[in-house]
């Protein structure tokens, strides 16, 4: 289990007290004919807030026999879509949790898509808008319409870290900076409801007691906070008979990897064909019945899974850069007049330019023989096949041309071998090129 411990060093109110306070301020706003806007993300804590309000609306209906007169709206119909998958999630819970969820199942029919004309009409309502950032999208549109009336209320829950516009709204009592950011004078009420990320140590201990994991990984920023939470959790777990005493509590290493020991040993079988491959092992792990894993080659794995194997091939060409000839032209020692000297100098400069532009041609057959000899010398464990002007080593094909070019093709599985062959081919081309210039 991985959980945050950044807020665990503080003592917060109980969740029930915070929910009671939230419902109280919303009912006070509705009683004064005000409008409530709750900016949230479309997934996550939004569904928890919806459940709190719908349960309270149901309690009012059970107590008075009348449905609540305040409707609950959604700015986007897609916000309600995840609720349709709750019956699927029920099957993954224990029977006790299933019964609890059935008993508290809210009526999703009470949620309606918002008509934006109601912003200018009188009458209370509760509106969930997205995104949680109040300076964007539907949230900004709704807040601009209700912020100037003291009877209205804005409930903040998510995206309230320091530096955000949401933090300015509830942390600055004068609200001058946030009014400037939003472009509207903010005079309405603001209530902050901590979202589910802000847990205390009691919540961590309660969660560990119910989940009973083998390891508890704490995310932290201050080392002293980690030690405090770690000691507190360990002391409480020792007194809980429902939790195994072998539970490990540690923090995430901020400077590198955090090792997590496996919960159980899983037997692994290796196919015998894997030992016939002299190169690096490349294969796949297949889960077998009775909690076993088997390591097989990609070909055997595709056949066992009855899947078609896809091959990925690459091609590459490299050309030897031009190098000037090291030979030095011998100048005539015969004395000449000034005019003949100028004319001969001009002719010699033209000859040098023509010579510099021409690159010697390679003997393609000799170059291919030299490459074949070097590959045989340096790559001893693989058979080599010659097809026309190509040399093949497994899926790697290499060829050379009279323009001092190296052409290669290879598959993804032999990428390391292709790198070795390319390095040898470059060395052969360099050596033959120098021999050609020396002649």
Automatic annotation (TrEMBL):
Entry-linked Pfam families: Beta-Casp
GO molecular function terms attached to this record: hydrolase activity; RNA endonuclease activity
Residue ranges of domain Beta-Casp in the record: 46-169
TM region positions: none
Keywords: Hydrolase
GO cellular component labels: nucleus
GO terms (BP aspect): snRNA processing
PANTHER family for the chain: CLEAVAGE AND POLYADENYLATION SPECIFICITY FACTOR FAMILY MEMBER, INTEGRATOR COMPLEX SUBUNIT 11
Protein name per the record: Beta-Casp domain-containing protein
Biological source species: Phytophthora nicotianae
